[in-house]
Design goal:
two-stranded antiparallel ribbon; 5 helices; single chain; 257 residues; 13-stranded antiparallel β-sheet; alpha+beta; 57% strand
């Protein structure tokens, strides 16, 4: 772990290989610049993560900067613990990573995250989002057995806005959505990850145009398209949103909920 004694390009390559091995072969990490940081660490700038999807590169995540360093005593006692701090737009992300029995123990927190700046979110949903999110998480992740991941997530949404967007509904074509206020400071997400499922104990979106409360489970799979959900809850839409949804929903949809 004496990274500071190695040439920085060698360290850069080792970081890239480590991240790509951790996430899987379809991911690729690019780093613009790297330099030493506080004796046992490194400082990175211009970080981008991409994924290969059907032969095309799809942006996943961009970070303006990332600093990471090993605690000296954790190295001396043979249990290296990596602390990190990152900046993405106005968001601050910090935490620690420690390897245990072939798996990874990850703790983290975030402040003022705008999900609209995350390329993966936009490519997955097709929505133009703007948010301010803070919270904490802890995850125990084994790359060899990803569906055995365990963890806890506690998130507060101070703001979640949807700017006019189009949702692709496949054979039904594209569905336009207007500007919507989806969440304010009373909105939260509390979830537990265990045995291949995400258990939602409290999922509340409360904004001017939507009030949605859910609980239940999301059953994970190797691909998001194969996820299954068993959720129940209550919802209320604004008149503006009802005017958009009502004409395209089946006549019996309300009684089937």
């Amino acid at each position: 772990f004496l990274y500071w004694m190695a040439p920085m390009e060698a360290v850069k390559g080792r970081i890239q290989n480590g991240v790509e091995q951790f996430l899987g072969s379809r991911y690729q990490l690019e780093i613009e610049t790297i330099k030493t940081y506080r004796f046992t660490g490194v400082s990175l700038r211009g970080i981008s993560l991409e994924s290969q999807v059907e032969g095309k590169k799809v942006p996943v995540l961009n970070l303006d900067r990332l600093t990471a360093r090993f605690g000296l005593f954790s190295i001396l006692f043979g249990r290296p613990r990596l602390k990190f701090d990152a900046r993405a737009g106005e968001a601050d992300i910090s935490g620690s990573v420690q390897r245990q029995e072939g798996a990874w123990q990850i703790h983290g927190s975030l402040d003022d995250l705008d999900v609209g700046t995350i390329p993966w979110v936009k490519s997955l949903t097709g929505l133009k989002l703007e948010s301010s999110i803070e919270g904490d998480w802890q995850v125990f992740y084994n790359p060899a057995e990803p569906l055995r991941t365990t963890g806890q997530l506690d998130i507060a949404l101070d703001k979640l806005l949807l700017k006019a967007s189009e949702v692709n509904l496949g054979e039904m074509g594209k569905f336009p959505l207007p500007d919507l206020q989806m969440a304010d400071s009373k909105s939260v997400i509390e979830a537990q990850i265990d045995k291949g499922a995400i258990g939602l104990s409290n999922f509340l979106l409360q904004g001017k145009d939507i009030h949605l409360g859910l609980e239940g489970k999301i059953f994970l799979a190797n691909e998001p398209s194969n996820y299954r959900m068993n959720l129940k809850g209550k919802f209320k839409f604004s008149d503006k949103l009802w005017k958009i949804l009502d004409p395209i929903l089946p006549e019996t949809w309300l009684s089937e909920l």
